[in-house]
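User: Hey, my collaborator sent me this sequence without any context and asked if I could get a structure. I don't really work with proteins. Can you help?
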Amino acid sequence: MNDINHQIATAQEADSASHQYLTFQVRNQRLAVEILRIKEIIEYGRITVVPMMQQCISGVINLRGSVVPVVDLSARFGQGQTAVNRRTCIVILESQMGDETQVVGFMVDAVNAVVDISGESIAPPPQFGSGVRTDFLRGIGKVDEEFVLVLNVERLLDFEIPAELEASVAA
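Assistant: No problem. I've predicted the 3D structure and written it out in structure-token form, which is a compact way to encode the shape of the chain:
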């Protein structure tokens, strides 16, 4: 975990940071988020459940005195709750929501690595077949002959989706 956090810090200082992404696994899908959004990666720990929250929000954690909501990406994609194991971790990132910056955690199955993906090698999201709602994607990149789904963080954090739609996606 410390090695990945060190890679993130090094990448953020580099000039090429705008083309660098953190890759991680959710239900055997390789996903990516821009490295400049990542604050840190922490081990999965105690999450405080908040009553009456959407199913994809696992709860909140205390991150050095700040309350940070944790989104279970597997549940957000309608693929059921994440099965916690020794590689499960929480990716802490920043998102611009309106005029304010929001810090949020994404619960993922495992973190992979920091990779370079040039802008021209990211194709628009497909219209179907990826297992992820395509409006949650910025595009699909290619790393080492493998596809990586590049996430649209703001869209993932838009919880204004009607409850009946979310329930139908989860079914």
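In plain terms: The longest strand covers residues 89-97. You can pass these tokens on to your collaborator as they are.
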